[in-house]
């Protein structure tokens, strides 16, 4: 495959990229200062609007949900329904004022949404994606103490067991969630007695100015970020030295 005529450092800079950076930084800075409840509702509203006007993306989401629903029906028919090997949900979720995170992610709630008409499921995907995005910006400026009021993490015992071997740990998270809250996990983990270094894989933005700003914000709480530009050995060495490295499982819709 032929390489691009211009190096990456040149392609992702310039007057247009700078203008995009200024506008995006201004909007994100504003969103970061919204109360978490307002950010959540505004995100759901934006998701609803996207659902209404993004017809091509809506068709993709609907098609993917058809595949997921077919798989869930097959699992249910074979009596193989389970969240994980321990039978309990693990992970991270926003605690909405109207519904707790446990309720949002319980098997009964998931079955409830899967029983809705396909178009209603599609709309919920858009609304939750918007809520997660907007809430994530607010999480980015919170202290670990504040974050703990809105994030529920379960299964820390499994992580402690893995780290006890002294070889680090790999944490696999679903793609759907309050992504920016990941940068607050070092402080959150420390409050629960976990002191291991924390890192995450991320995809650099195609705007050098915005990427540098985002990376600085994300690493301010102690999270070390790795990208494809860092190669393979750096994140591997990080894990071998006892670090916790997060991978976000990609879900495309």
Question: What are the defining features of this structure?
Answer:
55% helix, 4-stranded parallel sheet, alpha/beta, 6 strands, 11% strand
Characterise this structure:
The protein has helices at residues 8-11, 15-32, 36-53, 55-77, 101-105, 107-114, 118-139, 144-147, 156-164, 185-191, 208-219, 233-240; strands spanning 91-94, 151-154, 169-174, 198-201, 223-226, 244-249. Helix 11 (208-219) links the parallel strand 4 (198-201) and strand 5 (223-226). The protein has one domain. The protein has 253 residues and is an alpha/beta fold. Residues 80-106 have low confidence and may be disordered. The chain is globular. The strands form two sheets. It has a four-stranded parallel beta sheet. The protein has a two-stranded antiparallel sheet with strand order 1-2. The relative contact order is 0.14. Helix 2 runs parallel beside helix 11. The chain has twelve helices and six strands.
Helix content: 40-55%
Output the radius of gyration: 20 Å
- 3D shape: globular
Number of discrete helical segments: 12
**Major β-sheet annotation:** 4 strands, parallel
Low-confidence stretches: 80-106
- Sketch the topology as an H/E string, one letter per element: HHHHEHHHHEHEHEHEHE
Mean pLDDT: 77
Order of strands in the sheet with the most strands? Answer: 3-6-4-5
Number of DSSP strand runs: 6
Gap between N and C termini, in Å?
Answer: 27 Å
Which structural class do you get from the secondary structure elements? alpha/beta
